[in-house]
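Need a sequence for this fold. Nothing fancy.
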């Protein structure tokens, strides 16, 4: 299995690696800083460098459903590096950092809106969560003010591990109604925003809420009789 360096340090933007095998042009490595698509967060992009100095573009990162291997997808038609060769990885850091900021922002949103989450997704430009509000309307101005406060007080964000059986005994920590964490695993990661939020998550996050930056509630949409979708964007993009 690929050693997932992003789990220990989401700020690490590059690393050396060895090519384990190539799957139809997708490259599997012994370790990586690239986050694979999952949990509503996109797969990372960036570059893989050969020993001769040439760089190949990684357009996406996915996890193979059958084997669990992390696969780095190259531009179509580009010959991959050979199995056994040593390479260097470099993230598209600007894109990844925006993913981290928005992912942490969505955790704040789920802390502000205390309803079950029925879906979610994020990009480097925006993020959204769907809530089962029972049909209750949501106030965009009120939500934005609460988010602003949580960003401004610059709360620390940390990770810790919990056993699957412990998490099962604390169902209030699980906010998602449509997807549940892998309770069969011996250890599951919790993401804590001090004094605001605690929930299982395998994604990448910033170290403090102040790093998220100013947010705006882009829109609130009705998605059926019970569900409301809240879309966030970075204020800097307005």
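Here you go.
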């Amino acid at each position: 299995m690929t050693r997932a360096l992003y789990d220990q340090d989401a700020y690490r933007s590059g690393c050396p690696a060895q090519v384990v095998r190539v799957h139809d042009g997708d490259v599997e490595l012994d370790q990586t800083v690239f986050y694979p698509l999952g949990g509503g967060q996109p797969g990372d992009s960036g570059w893989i460098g050969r020993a001769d100095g040439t760089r190949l573009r990684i357009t996406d990162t996915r996890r193979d459903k059958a084997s669990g291997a992390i696969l780095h997808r190259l531009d179509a038609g580009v010959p991959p590096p050979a199995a056994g060769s040593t390479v260097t990885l470099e993230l598209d850091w600007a894109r990844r950092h925006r993913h981290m900021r928005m992912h942490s922002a969505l955790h704040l949103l789920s802390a502000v809106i205390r309803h079950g989450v029925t879906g979610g997704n994020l990009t480097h430009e925006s993020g959204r969560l769907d809530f089962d509000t029972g049909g209750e309307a949501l106030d965009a101005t009120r939500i934005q003010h609460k988010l602003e406060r949580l960003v401004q007080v610059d709360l620390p964000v940390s990770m810790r591990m919990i056993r699957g059986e412990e998490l099962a005994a604390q169902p209030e920590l699980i906010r998602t109604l449509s997807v549940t964490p892998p309770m069969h695993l011996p250890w599951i990661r919790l993401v804590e925003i001090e004094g605001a939020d605690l929930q299982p998550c395998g994604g990448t996050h910033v170290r403090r809420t102040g790093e998220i930056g100013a947010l705006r509630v882009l829109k609130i949409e009705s998605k059926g009789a019970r569900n409301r979708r809240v879309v966030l964007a970075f204020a800097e993009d307005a």
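For context: Residues 85 and 124 are 32 Å apart (CA to CA).
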